Amino acid sequence: MEPIDGGYRAPQEVPTTAPFELGVNAPFFQIVSLALDVARNNEEIIFSGNFVWAFDASDLEAVVNIKFNNQLSTALPFYRGQVVKGQPFSRLFITHAAQAGKTINLLVVRQSGDFSIENPGSLFNAVTVTKASNAWSGADVTIVAAAPSAVILAADATRVSAIVTALSTNTQEVRIGLNIAATAAKGIPLAPGESVSIDGTAALYGYTGAGVNQTVAISVTQD
Predict the structure, then answer these.
(1) Tell me: the pLDDT tens digits for 171-198?
(2) For 13-54, how does the pLDDT look when each residue is reduced to its tens digit (9 = 90+)?
(3) What is the CA radius of gyration of the chain?
(4) Comparing C-alpha atoms, which of 207, 74, 212, 62 is closest to residue 148?
(5) pLDDT tens across 57-94, in order?
(6) Statement: 24-113 belongs to CATH 2.60.120.10
(7) Are 67 and 93 within 8 A, CB to CB?
(8) Quick one: three-class SS letters along the chain?
(9) pLDDT tens figures, 95-151
(10) I need a surface site. Which of 8, 64, 127, 131 has the fewest CB within 10 A?
(11) Residue 96 CB neighbours (<10 A)
(12) How many whole angstroms from its chain centre is CA 45?
């Protein structure tokens, strides 16, 4: 029982919503923003902690080398997303070469007990969807019977994909080679009326065996 005003009062329940005590043992956060245009050589940052996270940077190539406490002969390179935790330190030493226009931001934490950052990768997961900006269909291409494999679509660095269709009026199989000559036993086989979609920029070759000339139609999408 606790004495109060000469009397006593019953013990009190601790509210479940009571905030955590602030003070020496409370986690403490510091953000250190570094512009990397001018080189640093063991520049000292006096800050006590046991958690360092390079949570942001201008790009994935930006880098600083960090030494902890008095370990001036041992440095860790920090790129965006890198974390070091659990090792207490009172000073950080920053070294890096000049990197024009680049920056890096460090989160330095003094922690007590468990501390974690959930899903840090969410800062870096950017999904870019690109679509072809041009599409066209060329004139039908004749593949000469029993002749050496010939280019039916030239290489094109802007090409995203090509659709090759063997006309339904063809009378025999054709073979489509990807950046290599096609033969009777090499390349993608297309029976009359069949199509194939091929991604990439390489040249396409066509071949058909003895008989009569065969024809393919070609459509292309480009960047």
Answers:
(1) 999 999 998 899 999 999 999 999 999 9
(2) 555 554 445 555 556 788 889 999 999 999 988 777 888 889
(3) 34
(4) 207
(5) 999 899 999 998 877 678 889 999 888 887 788 888 99
(6) yes
(7) yes
(8) CEEECCEEECCCCCCCCCCCCCCCCCCEEEEEEEECCCCEEEEEEEEEEEEEEEEEECCCCCCEEEEECCCCCCCEEECCCCEEEEEEEEEEEEEECCCCCCEEEEEEEECCCCCCCCCHHHHCCCCCCCCCCEEEECCCEEECECCCCEEEECCCCCEEEEEEEECCCCCCCEEEEECCCCECCECEEECCCCEEEEECCCCEEEEECCCCCEEEEEEEEEC
(9) 999 999 999 999 888 776 666 666 666 556 666 677 778 999 999 999 999 999 999
(10) 127
(11) 22
(12) 31
Q: Per-residue confidence at 3, pLDDT binned at 50, 70, 90?
A: low
**Where are the chain's structural domains?**
24-113, 134-222
CATH of the domain spanning 134-222, picked from 3.10.20.90, 2.60.120.770, 3.50.50.60, 3.30.1120.10: 2.60.120.770
Closest CA to 174 of 220, 207, 142: 207
Token code pair at residue 93: 């030493």
Residues 6+ apart with CB under 8 A from 150: 143, 144, 205, 206, 207
